[in-house]
């Protein structure tokens, strides 16, 4: 179980937020990030709107938004920002803060990440098939991707019996130690 | 050090087993000695860096520490692994305080300085396009492809060392070096949807279908990628995408290593083309056969032309000895062996004197 150190965790979150707020000050609302964003069509606030909301202090609204969770981290916005703002990095920080603050996030993106990390913390290397089964159960989508099962099985692309790899114990310790600091 | 630390990553163990196998085969053929990173573990991928920064960097740095025991050069074929490991390399090497923070959560500290490469970068730097060209055995000139980099092989160029964020070139250069017909397009770095294909399908399906659409528009018969996740979305999920969006794409998706391996003379079996859902074998076989018949046709034409020219020259030599002598003097500079009369230029008005001289060289 992860121990919670409120003081440390709060200071880490504060540092991240300070960085985010300093960075968004540079934004002049050209909209390049939104124009190039491949998943903006699923967002509730467009990337440039998120920048503006952060500039005027609407941090809680941003943290609870779909946008932060549905960012794919493709880095297109970062590459195209004329003010050299690492927008994808800001979304990444926001996602980690939302997670650490237990914000009730939309979609299953957070579940996906948690189950992925729990899988590697146990096995060392991702055991893909087992992880997918776990995710489908947690997301209550039991039929998700079952159509891929047969072709992947016949082409020998599925690990039927998951095995722990040699460095798995250390990965587990790294996961617990790192997460102790923030939660 | 003479060996390269090779990091397959989780996907290459099962869902992208053919990428692992063909990468190893290709590296061996190019004379690059590899040693698998001892007891490597997951790089953390996107879930780690979307959860906590230190967690992400520590998971990646652990692999650099393991790699340092065999080499100070490290290569991950998977662009997602590459990007995580490269990010850890840059931050940990530049910032001693951060390295100490990372070392505090690992079992043993990382003190080395391992350089991380991606696959196209490694091939261009260690072997080079010219040397690779020299090894080509199979003509792929009739294989029309686009190079698809995805998000993490080219972007951000400050990290990857690519020439441009929007138009990376390394894969294009390698594919051109092995003689494939590489088409130009603007979707080299458009996102395919990555792992969002699992929790939120519609994003991945929309993005994947745009890439397929653009590849067709560019005149490509196949998409070449070097990313197991892009491959999963474009190949394994292509029927899903077709069903959801009422499209009917039938586009083979090849790994960079498979195309290069085919050019270097490996068979379709050795390049594990049977592992894909959108079967690339008919296309590859057709392209290779077409190139062979084109080459045979060209050779036949060249031989015909040479025979004609020879017959004509002999005839004219018989008719007028003096004229042939003059032609010999004119052609003496470039092609001393076979005298070509001055007539060819007149025979085909559109050709200048230069191309006539070239013809002489080609036929002699």
What is the mean predicted local confidence, pLDDT of chain A? Answer: 86
Alpha plus pi helix count of chain A = 11
Count of individual domains of chain A: 2
Task: Please state the overall shape of chain B, judged from the principal axes of the Cα atoms.
Answer: elongated
Shape of chain A: globular
Strand content of chain B: 5-15%
Oligomerization category of the chains in this entry:
heterodimer
Strand tally of chain A, please?
0
Give the proportion of residues in helices of chain A. 55-70%
Q: How much is the average pLDDT of chain B? A: 89
Stretches of chain A where pLDDT is under 50 for at least 5 consecutive residues are none
Pattern of helices and strands of chain B: EHEHHEHHEHHEHHEHEHHEHHHHH
**How many E-type strands of chain B?**
8
The largest sheet of chain B, given as strand count, sense and whether it forms a barrel, is: 4 strands, parallel
Radius of gyration from the alpha-carbon trace of chain B, in angstroms: 27 Å
Derived from helix and strand composition plus strand pairing, the structural class of chain A reads mainly alpha
Proper CATH architecture of the largest domain in chain B = 3-Layer(aba) Sandwich
């Amino acid at each position: 179980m992860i121990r919670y150190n409120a003081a440390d965790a709060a200071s880490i979150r504060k540092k991240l937020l300070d960085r985010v707020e300093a960075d968004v000050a540079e934004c002049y609302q050209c909209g390049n990030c939104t124009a190039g964003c491949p998943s903006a069509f699923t967002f509730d606030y467009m990337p440039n709107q998120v920048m503006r909301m952060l500039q005027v202090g609407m941090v809680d609204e941003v943290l609870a938004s779909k946008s932060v969770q549905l960012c794919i981290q493709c880095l297109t916005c970062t590459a195209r920002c004329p003010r050299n703002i690492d927008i994808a990095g800001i979304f990444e920080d926001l996602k980690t803060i939302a997670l650490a603050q237990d914000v009730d996030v939309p979609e299953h993106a957070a579940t996906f990440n948690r189950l992925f990390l729990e899988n590697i913390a146990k096995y060392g290397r991702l055991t893909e098939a087992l992880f997918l089964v776990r995710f489908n159960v947690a997301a209550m989508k039991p039929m998700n991707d079952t159509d891929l099962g047969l072709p992947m099985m016949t082409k020998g692309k599925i690990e039927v019996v998951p095995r722990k790899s040699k460095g798995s114990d250390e990965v587990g310790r790294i996961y617990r130690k790192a997460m102790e600091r923030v939660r | 050090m003479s060996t390269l630390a090779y990091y397959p990553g989780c996907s290459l163990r099962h869902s992208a087993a053919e990428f692992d196998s063909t990468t190893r085969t290709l590296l061996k053929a190019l004379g690059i000695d590899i040693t698998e990173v001892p007891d490597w573990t997951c790089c953390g991928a996107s879930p780690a860096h979307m959860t906590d920064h230190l967690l992400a960097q520590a998971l990646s740095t652990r692999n650099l520490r393991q790699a340092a025991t065999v080499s100070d050069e490290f290569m991950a074929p998977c662009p997602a692994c590459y990007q995580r490991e490269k990010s850890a390399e840059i931050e940990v090497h530049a910032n001693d305080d951060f390295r100490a923070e990372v070392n505090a959560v690992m079992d043993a500290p990382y003190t080395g300085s391992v350089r991380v490469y991606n696959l196209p970068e490694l091939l261009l730097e260690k072997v080079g396009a010219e040397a690779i060209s020299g090894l080509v055995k199979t003509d792929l000139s009739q294989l029309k492809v686009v190079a698809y980099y995805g998000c993490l092989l080219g972007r951000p160029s400050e990290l990857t060392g690519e020439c441009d964020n929007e138009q990376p070139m390394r894969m294009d250069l390698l594919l051109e070096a092995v003689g494939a017909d590489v088409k130009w397009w603007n979707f080299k770095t458009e996102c395919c949807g990555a792992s969002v294909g699992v929790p939120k399908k519609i994003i991945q399906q929309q993005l994947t279908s745009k890439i397929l659409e653009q590849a067709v528009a560019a005149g490509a018969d196949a998409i070449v990628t070097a990313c197991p996740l892009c491959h999963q979305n474009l190949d394994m999920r292509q029927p899903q995408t077709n069903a959801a969006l009422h499209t009917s794409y039938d586009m083979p998706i090849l790994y960079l290593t498979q195309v290069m391996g085919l050019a270097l003379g490996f068979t379709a079996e050795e390049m594990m083309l049977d592992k894909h859902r959108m079967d690339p074998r008919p296309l590859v076989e057709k392209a290779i056969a077409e190139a062979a018949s084109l080459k045979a046709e060209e050779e036949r034409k060249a031989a015909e032309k040479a025979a004609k020219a020879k017959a004509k020259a002999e005839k004219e030599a018989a008719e007028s000895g003096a004229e042939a002598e003059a032609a010999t003097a004119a052609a003496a500079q470039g092609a001393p062996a076979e005298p070509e009369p001055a007539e060819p230029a007149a025979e085909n008005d559109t050709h200048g004197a230069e191309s006539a001289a070239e013809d002489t060289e080609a036929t002699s």
